[in-house]
Amino acid sequence: MINVITIAPERSRLVGGSVDASIGERTTADTGANFTGSSGSLGYFLSGGRLGSDGLLPHSKLDSAYIYGKLDYKLPGRGYLTGTVHYSGADREHLYVPQSNMMNDVDVRYLYTTLQLQRPLGDRLELEVKGHYAKRDMDSEQKRISDGSLFDLLQDREDAYGLTAQMVWRGDHHLLVAGTEYKHKEFRVADSFDPTIQLPKHSRNFDRYGLFLNDTITIGPLSVTPGGRFDSCPLGDRFSPSIGVTWQVTDQTLLRGYTAHGYSAPRYTKDGETADILTGQIGAESLAIPCLWLKGTLFRNDTSNVRDIFNQDTNIPERRIAFGSELEIRTVPVWNTSLGTGWTYTDTYRAGDDSTVYLPSQTVQLMLRYDDKKYRGVLTGRHVWWHSNPAFEGRYSGMTWDLHLGAKLYKSEQNSLELFFSGHNLFDTAQYPDVYTPNTGRWFEGGMKVRF
Hints:
The protein has 452 residues and is mainly β. It has strands spanning 16-24, 28-39, 42-53, 62-74, 80-97, 102-120, 125-144, 150-170, 174-192, 201-219, 222-233, 236-250, 253-263, 276-286, 292-306, 318-331, 337-350, 362-371, 375-385, 400-411, 416-424, 443-451.
């Protein structure tokens, strides 16, 4: 899947784009269209799509859609003025728990708009100013399976807007960024276990003012990136330092390290408290072994004031330590075929008594890829050791396998026609952390994509 937010308008023609559609079991349909081009100094990118399904599991119907637009105006001289708008909505049958005679429906709407100015002030100095507005509405209804009656209603509203201004200076051995930021956020929550009662409203406003400065210093094969951020908000003043280092040992081997201290966004409950986070990692990437790309990482995260569903007592915040490693290996293509694998291990425990937190501890992924530019195929396998509470009756001893195939029936410089097919969970493997959220079994879909 391509992130449309990062796509720039095409400058070489007036109109171009693509249209795609797929259909699968239980009327699971995914359709989309993109249009891009430019006229004179004005460029545009428009995208929209819909994803819907009658539900591959009981009570899992989905109806969602999105639209995204970007206008990019090239200013006289140098610089750009860019505006974007993104709107999405989804109606989803979220949970179905016969053991508790409960089902949950969720309705979410999201709007995000931006306006950004990029203006060079010389050969090395650039000004960037960006404003944004975001709005999120969520309604959640819990009903009894037996008679469909409503017994819990949650309404969550969130509005946010802000402005960021920064200067970027590109020197011979420096990339210096300095700026300021303002953000306002407003939460409004209503919750009631008796829908006949007038819902109480809980609201909180949050204003944050920030200053930030970071520099990437390059000396031969060594790059050092120190940074710092100061925030002032109703919860007090916060300073968040960070530093990263990379060392290009050889043309084929890179070493890196990073550490930072920060805090999470405030919660709208519990007096808007935040979690403090201290993170660090070291790692390496290398092509020194013929035909192989290797990447390894060791990491440690220390998080204080944690409050979530995994707490031993949800009324008492916890401090948690997560220590782990990641390993990725890929082969170079041979006869258009390559292999890849990845493994992640995380040990998460409470700092107070060293007790284990029931969070995923291991993930393994395997990949076999073929691509000769006309025909392509990817076989992927994935296993997650959910490490869930045994009382939740999770099942995760197997591996789920997916197959994706594609064929380009026609291709020219700007046009193409491609057919694709996917098989999901080919061996109908159970892979879920608790009996309340089973994974989807084996299912298939196929479709077509046209570029013009």
